[in-house]
Fold this protein.
Amino acid sequence: MAEKTRKQINRKMVCIICGILAVIVVLTSLIFAFSKKENSTVLQATKSTVNAINLENNEHMHVEEDASGDKVPVPDISKFYGTDANGKKWGKQYQFSSSMSSSYDEITGTKPYNWSESDGVMTISSKTSYREPDIVKSYDYDSTLKTRGLGAKTTHEFLNQLEKEFNNMIVSVEKYGGFYIGRYETGNINQETPVVQKGNTDINFQTWYNMYKRCKNIKGDNTNVETGMIWGNQWDRTLMWLIETGSKTKEQIADDSTSWGNYNNATFEYVNSSGSTATKNEGSSTRIPTGSTEYTKANNIYDLAGNVWDWTMEASSSINRVCRGGHYKKDGDRYPADYRNYYGPTNYFSYLRLSSNALH
């Protein structure tokens, strides 16, 4: 399938988001949303946090000393989601640009992507463009849902399921002021239970449907959190946060992410699967293990740009799910961190992955 163009996590929530990207040969990095229960206390991004929710080195999830990730703040929830005239909540997606045009936010370089808002009522410009939460009708129909093991067995049930998961995430983000995203791409994704682990190489070749299910398994038997694939509004919020904190510029997000991502045209040193220091040369296409180089780190999160596409919950048209961030076979000036691509949810490639993890 042709890779289509265009560009396109606020205070603190406890989320590990699982985002995947599908199509040709990219890595699988996972982003999960971990949702805290009502009576839980606010978690801190430290080792004690990990112990507090029993996620450290359990049978289902290996978490490094610093792998709980940094909190992505959501200071203004109104920029994170909106409600339409029928009372449905929608994620607010954004288009990024380095332009000084008045139509873009001066600080983050963003403007609404496929939505508008008037008097507190949100309108989706096109129900066939980028949006969430929603089904993709050409794949999410009754006869196939019965065999996918997603929980819901009909199109109507699946839409309700996605809307409930989205609403629960919003409640958590609003209550705790943001969310956490995993420091490393999710590994062991060809197994039923993935891990969040530095140096993992099993990060690609999974369909959206498989990753949607497996992202939920990262929590193991833990009842204090919920896990799930990253939403598009969380991906956009994370990129805004990188700009707001000065970690990356608007240009490095929207125009060219070569300076901090594993792309074909980037060069850097990394630790390979054998544990040796290696050089990734410019003009070479090399998928690297999770968290294997400081070159690809931004605010203590690795590989948001390049390496492998990241699947997200975002829908596009009636047949596609959205993947973000580009991959190692392409150049960073063509597929920067904000880049939106899309594929049918049954596609899988070596450059598709799960993104980061999020707690709510």
Observations:
- The first strand starts at residue 25 and ends at 26.
- Helices lie at 47-52, 142-148, 155-176, 208-215, 232-244, 250-254.
- Residues 129 and 316 are 5 Å apart (CA to CA).
